[in-house]
Amino acid sequence: MAKAYWVATYRTISNPDALAAYAKLSGPAIAAAGGRILARGLPAHVYEAGLPQRTVLIEFDSVEQARAAHDSPAYQDALAVLAGGAERDIRIVESV
């Protein structure tokens, strides 16, 4: 089974306090679902049409595990805390 990567980019962060509260809940929720945060923060460098946006990269053992983590009650609680505090783009990509 191929690993999967959850890639989140933050287009805007309008409420840093909501983001901090989200981080306190989301990290444990993701870890409990089998996710491993590999990288987070601003890019060290961007190329081509890249944007200097906060990016988070999380590894899972499968696409199904990543989807289950996102849909879990614990992660949904974290999302409720973030509501309106940031505009994000989340993608789940299967490894090759």
TrEMBL record:
This is DUF1330 domain-containing protein. Pfam families: DUF1330. It comes from the Bacteria. Signal peptide: none annotated. It comes from Methylobacterium isbiliense. Gene3D superfamilies: 3.30.70.100. Residues 3-95 form the DUF1330 domain. InterPro entries: Dimeric_a/b-barrel (IPR011008), DUF1330 (IPR010753). The lineage of its organism: Bacteria, Pseudomonadati, Pseudomonadota, Alphaproteobacteria, Hyphomicrobiales. PANTHER family: BLR0684 PROTEIN, PTHR41521.
